[in-house]
Amino acid sequence: MRLGLKLFLGFFLIVGIAAFFVMRVFVNEVKPGVRQAMESTLVDAANVLAVIAAPDLKAGHMADGAFAAHMATAQRRDPRAMVWRFPKRSIDYRVTVTDARGIVIYDSLGQDVGRDNSRWNDVYLTLRGQYGARSSARTPGDETSTVMHVAAPVYDPADGRTLIGVLTLAQPNDTFDPFIAASQRAIVARGAWLIGLSALIGLLMTWWLARGIGSLSRYAKAVSAGEPVPPPRRRHDEIGDLGLALETMRRKLEGKAYVEQYVQSLTHEMKSPLAAIRGAAELLQEPLPEAERQRFAGNIVQQERRLTETIDQLLRLAEVEQHGWLQRRTDVDLVALCRSLAEDAAPRLQAAQLQLDSHLPERALVQGDAFLLRQALSNLLDNAIAFSPAGGRIELALEQQGREWQVRLRDAGPGVPDYALERVFERFYSLARPGTGQRSSGLGLPFVAEVARLHGGQAGLRNAPEGGAEARLLLPAG
Questions:
Q1: Which sequence ranges are marked TM in the entry (predicted)?
Q2: Average pLDDT in the 77-105 region?
Q3: Cys-Cys with 56: which of 46, 67, 291, 441 at CB 3.0–4.6 Å?
Q4: Is 399 part of a structural domain of the chain?
Q5: Which DSSP symbol is given to 139?
C-alpha cells in the first residue's frame, strides 16, 4: 500500500471514529434533553395551575367551578401554531386534581374521577412534601406510548401552607417525538457533512504530503540514474529541508566525481601536446639550421594554442554540465541571434574565401539563455568554416517543425566518415581538418549537445544528401 493511501486512511479513520462517537453521544442525548426540557416546562405550568385551582378545590367546586370551565374552554381551542415546521392544532395537557387523600376529584378528560391515585409516584411524593413526577404508559403494557406526569401541591389559599390536594399535569411524550427525530436527523446530516469535509481536508493534506515525498522520490531516482535534473521546488517545511539536503549532498558527491573525471580526461589530452612541446624544446637546445629552429618553435606555439583551446572549451563545458538545468530563462529571438552571429563571422568567412547563405523567417522565439545559445551556434559555425574548402558555401537555415524550431548549418566539406558519425558528440573526439590536418579539442559538439539538453531540445549531425555535413539544433518554440 502506498504511503499517500496509508496517510489518508489513517487520517480518515481517526476523524471518522471520533466523529461517529461524537454524533452518537449527541443523538443519544437529544431525547433525554428534550424530555428534561419538557419536564421543566410542565413543572412551571403545574404550579401555576395549582394556584389557580386552589379556591375551587377549597370551596368544593372543582367539577363545576370556574377552573373546570376555563380548562374546558382551553381544550376546545385550536392554537394554529407552526412549531419548527410542525403544525400544532390542539391542547395536549391533561389535568387531574386529587384531594388530600389522593382521590381524583377532577379530571379534564372526565375519565378517572373517584380513582385512588395515592399510590402513583407523582401524587404519593407530593402528599409527603416532595417533588412528584412519573412517566407511565398511556395504555397498560404499551411502553411505546408514554405520558409524563408532573404534580404540584395545592395549598389552602387562606394560609398558603395547608396541603388540600395535588394537581397533576400530564402530556404525552410522543408530542415531542417529531422534534426529537428532526434534531437527530439534523445532527446526523451535519455529522455526515463534517465527516465528508474532514475526508476532503485529509485527502488534500495527504495529496500535498505525498506530492512532496513523490517529488523527492523521483529526484532521488533520477540522481541515482545519473540524470541531470533540477532540485525539487523549495518548500518551507521539513520536506523542503530534506530536498535541500539531498541537493547539497548530490552537488558534493557529483562535484567530487566530476573533478576526478575531468582531471583524468584533461591529463590524458594534455599528454600529447606536452610531449610535442618537450620534444621540440629539447631539440631547440641543440644547434639547428634556422629553418628547423623556426619549424620547432612554431610547433611549440601550435601545441600551446591547442592546450589553451582545450582548457577553455573544457571549462565552458564543465560550467554548463555542472548546472544541470538552466539558471535563467528569457525570450530569445533565434533570427536576431543568427544574424548577429553571421555579422561577427564575416571576417573569418572572407579570410577562408567562404560564403554564408542564410534562410531565416521574420521571427523565431524560444525560451532559454541567449549567451549559451549563441556559444552553441558559434561552435557549429566554426566547425562548418573549418571543414569547408575555399570557395565553398555554407547554408544557415531556420525553420519551424511543429512546436519546435530547427537550426540547420550545412558545410561544403567532405562529410563525416561513417565510423565517426556515432562518436562526434563524445568528449575529446575530433576529426582532422581537411586543409591543415589539425584536430580541435573535441569539446565543441559535446558543448552544443549539452546546451540543447538544457533547453529541452537536441543536437544532431549527419551527412547531407547534397554533400557536406549538416549540423542540426532542435529547440522547443517559446
A1: 7-27, 191-210
A2: 86
A3: 67
A4: yes
A5: S
Mean pLDDT of the chain: 79
What CATH code is carried by the domain that includes residue 298? 1.10.287.130
- Please answer whether residues 84 and 179 qualify as being in contact, where contact means their C-beta atoms are separated by less than 8 angstroms: yes
More confident residue, 221 or 375: 375
Please check whether residues 346 and 319 belong to one and the same domain: no
Please report, for residues 46, 89, 114, 166, 465, the alpha-carbon distance to residue 100 in angstroms, rounded to integers and kept in the order given. Answer: 17, 35, 13, 7, 127
Question: Rounded to whole angstroms, how far apart are CA atoms 435 and 413?
Answer: 10
Query: Which residue has 559535446 as its cell numbers?
Result: 446
334 and 320 in a common domain: no
Backbone angles phi, psi at 62, to 5 degrees: -65, -35
Exposure b/e, 319-342, CB count within 10 A at least 16 = b: ebbeebebeeeeebbbbebbeebb
Whether 1 shows a pLDDT value over 60: the answer reads no
Residues 6+ apart with CB under 8 A from 434: 387, 389, 413, 414
Task: Give the phi and the psi of residue 405 in degrees, each rounded to 5.
Answer: -105, 135
Cell digits of residue 80: 394554529
**Residue 252 grid cell:** 558534493
Confidence of residue 259 (pLDDT cuts 50, 70, 90): very low
Confidence of residue 312 (pLDDT cuts 50, 70, 90): low
pLDDT above 80 (res 215): no
Q: How many helices (H) and strands (E) does the chain have?
A: 9, 14
**Could you give the CA distance from residue 414 to residue 389 in angstroms, rounded to a whole number?**
9
The larger pLDDT score, comparing residue 31 to residue 117, is at: 117
Terminal-residue alpha carbon distance, the chain? 41
Domain tally for the chain?
3
Q: Which of 155, 158, 130, 149 is nearest to 43 (CA)?
A: 149
Domain final position from 284, 307, 325: 325
Alpha carbon 226 to its chain's center: 28
Radius of gyration of the chain from Cα atoms? Answer: 51
Q: Does residue 215 lie in a domain region?
A: no
Helix, strand, or coil (residue 86): strand
Residues 151, 232, single domain; the answer is: no
What range defines the domain where residue 246 resides? 228-325
Identify the CATH number of the domain in which residue 448 sits: 3.30.565.10
User: What whole-number distance in Å separates Cα of residue 432 and Cα of residue 411?
Assistant: 15
41 and 167 in a single domain? The answer is yes
pLDDT single digits (tens) 55-67: 999 999 998 999 9
